[in-house]
Amino acid sequence: MKFMITTALATLALAAPAVAQKAQPAPAPAQSGGLITHQPKLSGDAGKVIVELQDAVNKNDTAAIPAKLAAAKAAAKTADDRYAIGILHLKAANAVKDQAGMAAGLEEMLASGSVKPEEELGLYSALGQTYAGLKQWPKATDAYQHVVKLNPTSVDAVAGLAEAQISAGQPAAAVGLLQQGIKLQQASGQKAAEAWYKRAVSIAYEAKLPATAQLSRDWIAAYPSPDSWRNGIAIYRNLNSPDVEGTLDLLRLMQANNALTAAADYNLFATASAEQLNYNEAQAVLNAGIAAKVVDPASPLFKDTLAGLKAKKLATEADLVEAVKSAANGMAVLRIGDRYYGMGNYAKAVELYRQAMGKPGVDPNIANLHIGMALARSGDKAGATTAFNAVTGPRAEIAKYWLLYVQSKA
Known about the structure:
Layout: H1 6-10, H2 44-58, H3 65-75, H4 79-95, H5 99-111, H6 117-133, H7 137-150, H8 155-167, H9 171-187, H10 194-207, H11 212-222, H12 226-240, H13 244-256, H14 263-275, H15 279-291, H16 300-310, H17 317-325, H18 330-342, H19 346-356, H20 364-378, H21 381-389, H22 395-407
C-alpha cells in the first residue's frame, strides 16, 4: 500500500482569480495512485491568500509557511478552498518528512467536502499508512476501516487494518481480518503466503484466544511440514497442558510427521512412554533419536533414562499374548494395545483397543482416539476418520490434529 505524493503535488498549480471575477480552474494536477484526481476552484475572497501559501510551499519557505497556512485557513470560504489548503499542507509536510503534518493535510482534504469518490481510497490509504508510521493506532485503524469499506476485496487494506488493530490492542479483531485476507486470496485463486497463517497463529497464541488451536491446524493444513507440525502441536500443548496420555498421543503424531526434531522432544516422548511402562516404545524412540543424530547417549539429558531402560526387560509379542490372558481390567488391555502400537503392530493394537472399549474404567474417548491412531498409521483412512470423529470432550482437539494427518495421506 505504498503511495507517492511528490509528483502530484509538485505539478499542482493554483491560480488566483481576478478580483470581482468568478474563480477559474487551474491546470489539472498529475494523477498519482488516485490521491488527487481533480483541480479545485478557488473562491474570489480566499484565492489570493491560498496562492501566497502555494508560493511559500513551492519555494519550501519553511519560516513563512506556518503563518501563511493559518491565514489561508482563516480566509477559506468553500469546500474547494479547504481542499486546496489541505493539498498544500500535505505537500509542505511531505517536503520535510513531517508525518504529523502529512496526516493533518490528508485530514483537511478529507474533511473539506470537495473530495471526489474516486479519491477517497487513495487518501484514506495514505492516511492509514501515515498514522501507522506515527504509531497512532486508533487513528490508523479508523483510516484503514474506511479503506476496507471502500474496497473490501483489497488484501493489502485488510492486512493494514489487521496490523493497526494488533498494535491498538485488538488481537481478536486482527485475527479475524487475517482470516478474511486468507479467504480473499483463496477466492481469487491464490494461496495465501505462509506468513499470513503464522501471523494469525502468533497473535492468537500471545493473546490466548480460544481460536488458537484451530488456527494452528489451519496453518498445518495449508503448509504441512515438520516445522508447522512441531510448532502447531507445541502451541496446543503450551496452552492446554495435556496429561501424560494426551502428551504421548501428540508426540506420536509428531513422530508420524517426522516432526521430532529436538532432543527435548525425544526426551519427553521416552520419559512419558516409560511412565506408562511402555518400555519398548521408549527404547524405540531413543534409538530413532540416536540414529537421527539428535539424541546423544552420553548427554546428561539421556544418560539416566537410557540406563534405566537398559535395566528393564523389553516385552516380546509372546509376552504380550500372555499379558492379555492375565489382564485384570479394561485399562490393562488398552495399555497392552499401546505396547503393540509402539512395536508397529497396528492391527493387533486396534484389536485390543476395541476389546477394551466399553469395559469399566476405560474412557471411550481414549479408546476411540487410539483406535483412530492405529488405523491411521496402518493406512485405513475411512476407519480412522470414523474413530476420530467419535472422540468428544478434551480429547476431541487432539483427535482433530490426528484427522489432519489422515487427510494429508493420499
